Amino acid sequence: MNAQDLLSVAQEHGSPVYVYDAEAIVSQYERLTSAFAKAKNLRIHYAVKALSNISILKLFKQLGAGLDTVSSQEVQLGLAAGVDPSKIIYTPNGVSLEEIEKVAGMGVQINIDNLSILEQFGAKHPTVPVCVRINPHVMAGGNANISVGHIDSKFGISIHQIPHLLRIVENTGMTVNGVHMHTGSDILDIGVFLYATEILFETAAKFKDLEFIDFGSGFKVPYKEGDVSTDIEELGDQLSDRFNEFCKSYGKDIALAFEPGKFLVSQAGHFLAKVNVIKQTTSTVFAGVDSGFNHLIRPMLYGSYHGIKNISNPDGKNRFYSVVGYICETDTFAQNRQISEIAEGDILAFSNAGAYCYSMASNYNSRYRPAEVLWHNGKSHLIRERETMDDILRNQVDVELEIGAEAVEA
């Protein structure tokens, strides 16, 4: 998509608005599958939590992908999108046995990440095959909040607990048909990732009924010009060879699985916001937009970088701006950033807005969540309407209270 395409979306659908380029999503998916072309049986499960609009899920279904889900609601979204239950993996954390049993009843692949629930589930449902999530104790990821495979992480069954895990499997008679890990997001060093895969291979060899090994994801995408990213082609080449080697020693060909989210949709997304006010102080020029961290929380939550372009004046002289939102507390998208000269009413385009933007949006300050648009074949398609006050009030219950004079005086 070019600047003119984005402007046309803002003009047609208003602002703020999320825009996703379907062709960019398809391109990333094909890049990933090509990188692992040497793998005999490759499974891609798109991580629903990154961007869960049902039209996006249907797009991945058309591409042949399955889904990676973390809640019963995401599973239901996947089923509503027409995805075959057998192509959905459910990897929750800290949920109740009741939720896991409910999802198991939907026919999807269960992935369990703690010994307590594994033992309870195995004792009650020994005939339901499960995957187990292993914590390899490898620190990877671009931020402490998204590094999930280290020793202090709440995720996964510690590699030091494998003997206990094996006893549970033996005592319950349950079948483990997959092993899984996820070290974290924004992985740059493929050497660290490959080191973690060796731990997973060693663990996998202890189970005799495997159908797949799931290596998670977390591949880093570029956020700015010249930014580094995961060399997916090199990783694909090395890991495919090692995986085929493992299958040979294991005695059968099993599936190599991944669950990418950000890698597939981040760069395909743009977030468009209109400049409400230019405000100059003694040291800073603020560009205040008609949005805030209620719509794009990643800069405030993770310190993440999103490129910002003034698509209303792309060839203007660069000036330094701090781009801020309208939320009633510190609400900063970018500090002292060079952007082509901004005037009130201009449209700013935030890049890398396809992943963890709408899905983490809220109604903070009672603001509406924006519309979502899918750009395909040179046309915009509305895939979620902008919220209204009816949406804010929908589930609220208006209770009539009578306050007595004594309470008022007190």
From TrEMBL:
Pyridoxal 5'-phosphate binds at residues 218, 356. InterPro entries: Ala_racemase/Decarboxylase_C, DAP_deCOOHase_LysA, De-COase2_C, De-COase2_N, Orn/DAP/Arg_de-COase, PLP-binding_barrel. One of its GO terms (biological process) is lysine biosynthetic process via diaminopimelate. Keywords: Amino-acid biosynthesis, Decarboxylase, Lyase, Lysine biosynthesis, Pyridoxal phosphate. It catalyses: meso-2,6-diaminopimelate + H(+) = L-lysine + CO2. Pathway: Amino-acid biosynthesis; L-lysine biosynthesis via DAP pathway; L-lysine from DL-2,6-diaminopimelate: step 1/1. Substrate binds at residues 298, 302, 329, 356. Its cofactor is pyridoxal 5'-phosphate. HAMAP family: LysA. Homodimer. This is Diaminopimelate decarboxylase. It comes from Nonlabens marinus S1-08. The gene is lysA.
